[in-house]
């Protein structure tokens, strides 16, 4: 490898020897193509005309009034496929094509990354397999159907709790046996180097646009930038745009599940210890021996025991703060935003909004908060209904 | 304590290829697992490869994943694994290699882990999710504790990298026969022969072959290609899985199978 893929002590590439050649090939290809003129032009075209970038930055009317300060939503929910995931899937899918690969595999939790990859597989004419835990298949069945309609094969993963972690395990195992012709299109800013760097690069359009749009609309930078964090791809894409703006507070919101004290959550940064999972050193939810714990969250997309290495570094250095939002508050906020703005937020993104609601009355009215609305909530309507009928 | 060097020197003298069975420690529980390991030793194992169960074994196929779950459910953890190794060694002085995942060592404390397990009688610790690029994180503390180092080579490892791996290895090179995870296979990968030859041309450290080795015939082919040892895991673990309610039947099957492999392996024909 040319780079060690470290963010402070975090990251690296802790993988079986058999995967090293594939990661080296990927690293080499990424650094060869990511600034290549033809590659950039083709990706830029697809971003504009296929995905719908730039996404709007919307100054909420009634929601801002409700919380007592100015809340701007970065509308990644309006992108093709309904989430920010398309940015990374287009970027990596195109990279796979430039590398001459013919097959794509991906893991998925909520199904958003799986769907984005299935769409890109269709677009680029590549054979696509999506690994998805059986629990997630059940709770996100609409996305499963959509993936299949795009021509992708959805591979059910039974191991563990049948969630994102288990899907990544099986995707890695499959890749191990098929490294020659298969590109692993990893969806989160986690996993072994070079994935955290690649995913950040393809998601960095979020923060870059949001910064520019905020300046255009308000004449200044935001005071606060908030995003939800599971593995952390939408958050790192957003934060990256503001890292050098020292006065902009960056807040990542993890899945607090039933509450941090209950142990039923997925808040690795808030309640984990440093460990190694899926090729990276990062904060990890684990028992005293180092066995990875089961996680719980109402949002499948945040249901992950580890977190991207750069977030660990941003936490330790104090550049970003990380908090958790519990399921009950998330449900309330989901209904609140929908009622006040007519916008259905994905349950993942709703975690970031729940933090905003929690700040009601605590911040001066001129405060500008930019929240990454990373996905739309159509896929979650059934889950919310079920949770409310209990 | 018998070293790998001693064990492989003896085998060389006898023109034999090492029989190296793999078990997950504590599968299906502590006592049954200990009995199975003893059965394997009695059946002629020359070296033991033992795994400490991990929740997310990304280098393992379904058979060993399930064994990990069984062992974890029965309460196996690194501290109990230490006790297990002591009991195995009390019975017979056989070299033992651990094959496991890095997070368990990290959480135990790297230096303490190597020291404790060396004292219990372990000869080496192979970390499945640690490549040669980060080997320095473990080689120094391992050697300081008196352990040999074992690393993996796979069919897609570049020759220059093979040399680096061989240079860091003091025990044996764990040669992965195929591109993929652990698990029984009907046919042996056709990469094996070339891989063994390549390694033999690069290094004098023993070369042992594992992953997908499932039958006495596979073992024989590997031995004839010049390997110093044959590692068999999933096939044995599968026998445990199919006799979960009848430990004696599992033990009998393991003994019979290893007996067949043993005869397939000995005597080895002269070195090429």
Beta-strand level of the residues of chain B, as a percent range? 5-15%
- Please count the helical segments of chain B: 12
Could you please say which CATH topology of the largest domain in chain A applies here? Rossmann fold
Indicate the mean pLDDT of chain B: 96
Which architecture of chain B does the CATH hierarchy give at level 2?
Alpha-Beta Barrel
- Most extensive chain interface and residues per partner: A-B, 34 and 41 residues
- What is the N-to-C succession of helices and strands of chain B? HEHEHHEHHEHEHEHEHEHH
- Quaternary status: heterodimer
Question: From N to C, what is the helix and strand string of chain A?
Answer: EEHHEHEHEHEHHEHEHEHEHEEHEHHEH
Biggest sheet: strand arrangement of chain A? 3-4-14-9-10-13
- Enumerate the spans of chain A where pLDDT stays under 50 for 5 or more consecutive residues: none
Number of distinct helices of chain A? 15
Strand order of the largest sheet of chain B: 4-3-2-1-8-7-6-5
How would you describe the overall organization of this protein?
The complex is a heterodimer of chains A (390) and B (272). With 390 residues, chain A is an alpha/beta fold. Chain A folds into two domains: 156 residues, Rossmann fold (3-Layer(aba) Sandwich), CATH 3.40.50.1100; 217 residues, 3-Layer(aba) Sandwich (Rossmann fold). Chain A is 44% helix and 18% strand. Chain A is built from 15 helices and 14 strands. In chain A, the strands form four sheets. A six-stranded mixed beta sheet of chain A has the order 3-4-14-9-10-13, with helices on both faces. In chain A, strands 7-6-5-8 form a four-stranded parallel beta sheet, sandwiched between helices. A two-stranded antiparallel ribbon of chain A has the order 1-2. In chain A, helix 5 links the parallel strand 5 and strand 6. In chain A, helix 5 packs parallel to helix 7, helix 9 crosses helix 10 and helix 13 packs across helix 14. Chain A is globular. Chain B is an alpha/beta fold. Chain B has a single domain, classed as Alpha-Beta Barrel (TIM Barrel). In chain B, 49% of the residues lie in helices and 13% in strands. Chain B is built from twelve helices and eight strands. In chain B, strands 4-3-2-1-8-7-6-5 form an eight-stranded parallel beta sheet. In chain B, helix 2 packs parallel to helix 12, helix 10 runs parallel beside helix 12 and helix 11 packs antiparallel against helix 12. Chain B is globular. Chain B starts with a helix and ends in a 7-residue tail after the last helix. The model of chain B has no long low-confidence stretch (mean pLDDT 96). Chains A and B meet through helix 8 and strand 11 of A and helix 5 and strand 5 of B.
């Amino acid at each position: 490898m040319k780079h060690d893929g470290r963010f402070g002590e975090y990251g690296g590439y802790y993988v079986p020897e058999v995967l090293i050649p594939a990661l080296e090939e990927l690293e080499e290809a990424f650094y060869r193509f990511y600034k290549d003129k033809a590659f950039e032009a083709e990706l830029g075209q697809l971003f504009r005309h296929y995905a719908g970038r730039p996404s709007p930055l919307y100054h909420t009317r009634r929601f801002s009034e409700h919380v007592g300060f100015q809340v701007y939503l970065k509308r990644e929910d309006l992108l093709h496929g309904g989430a920010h995931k398309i940015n990374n899937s287009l970027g990596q899918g195109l990279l796979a094509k430039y590398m001459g690969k013919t097959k794509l595999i991906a893991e998925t939790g909520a199904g958003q990354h799986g769907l984005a990859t299935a769409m890109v597989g269709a677009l680029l004419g590549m054979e696509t397999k999506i690994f998805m835990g059986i629990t997630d298949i059940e709770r996100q069945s609409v996305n499963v159907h959509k993936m299949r309609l795009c021509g992708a094969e959805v591979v059910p993963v039974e191991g563990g709790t049948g969630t994102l972690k288990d899907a990544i395990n099986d995707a890695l195992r499959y890749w191990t046996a098929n490294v020659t012709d298969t590109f692993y299109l990893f969806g989160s800013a986690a996993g072994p180097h070079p994935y955290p760097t690649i995913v950040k690069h393809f998601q960095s359009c979020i923060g870059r646009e949001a910064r520019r749009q905020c300046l255009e609309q308000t004449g200044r930078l935001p005071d606060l930038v908030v995003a939800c964090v599971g593995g952390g791809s939408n958050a790192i894409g957003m934060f990256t745009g503001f890292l050098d703006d020292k006065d902009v507070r960056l807040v990542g919101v993890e899945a607090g599940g039933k509450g941090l004290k209950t142990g039923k959550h997925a808040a690795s940064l808030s309640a984990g210890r440093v460990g190694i999972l899926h090729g990276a050193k990062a904060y990890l939810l684990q028992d005293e021996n180092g066995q990875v714990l089961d996680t719980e969250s109402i949002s499948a997309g945040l249901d992950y025991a580890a977190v991207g290495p750069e977030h660990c570094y941003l936490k330790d250095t104090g550049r970003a703060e990380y908090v958790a939002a519990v399921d009950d508050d998330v449900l309330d906020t989901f209904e609140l935003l929908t009622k006040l703005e007519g916008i259905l937020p994905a349950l993942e993104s709703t975690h970031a909004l729940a933090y905003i609601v929690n700040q009601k009355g605590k911040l001066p009215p001129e405060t500008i908060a930019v929240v990454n609305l990373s996905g739309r909530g159509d896929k979650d309507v059934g889950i919310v209904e079920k949770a409310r009928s209990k | 304590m018998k070293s790998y060097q001693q064990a492989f020197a003896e085998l060389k003298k006898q023109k034999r290829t090492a029989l190296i069975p793999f078990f997950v420690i504590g599968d299906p529980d502590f006592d049954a697992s200990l009995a199975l390991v003893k059965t394997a030793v009695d059946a002629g194992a020359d070296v033991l490869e033992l795994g400490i169960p991990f929740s997310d074994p990304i280098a393992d196929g379904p058979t060993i994943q399930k064994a990990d779950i069984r062992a974890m459910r029965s309460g196996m953890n690194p501290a109990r694994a230490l006790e297990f190794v002591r009991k195995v060694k009390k019975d017979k002085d056989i070299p033992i290699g651990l094959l496991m995942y890095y997070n368990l060592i990290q959480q135990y404390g790297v230096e303490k882990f190597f020291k404790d397990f060396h004292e219990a009688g372990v000869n080496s610790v192979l970390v499945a999710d640690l490549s040669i690029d980060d080997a320095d994180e473990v080689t120094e503390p391992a050697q300081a504790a008196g352990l040999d180092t074992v690393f993996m080579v796979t069919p897609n490892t570049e020759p220059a990298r093979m040399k680096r791996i061989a240079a860091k290895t003091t025990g044996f090179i764990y040669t992965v026969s195929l591109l993929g995870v652990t698990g029984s296979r009907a046919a042996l990968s056709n990469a094996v022969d070339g891989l063994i030859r390549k390694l033999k041309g690069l290094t004098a450290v023993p070369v042992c072959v594992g992953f997908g080795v499932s039958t006495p015939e596979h073992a024989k082919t590997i031995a004839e290609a010049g390997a110093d040892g044959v590692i068999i895991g999933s096939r044995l673990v599968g026998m445990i899985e199919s006799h979960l309610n009848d430990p004696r039947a599992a033990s009998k099957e393991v003994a019979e199978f290893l007996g067949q492999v043993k005869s397939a392996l000995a005597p080895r024909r002269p070195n090429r």
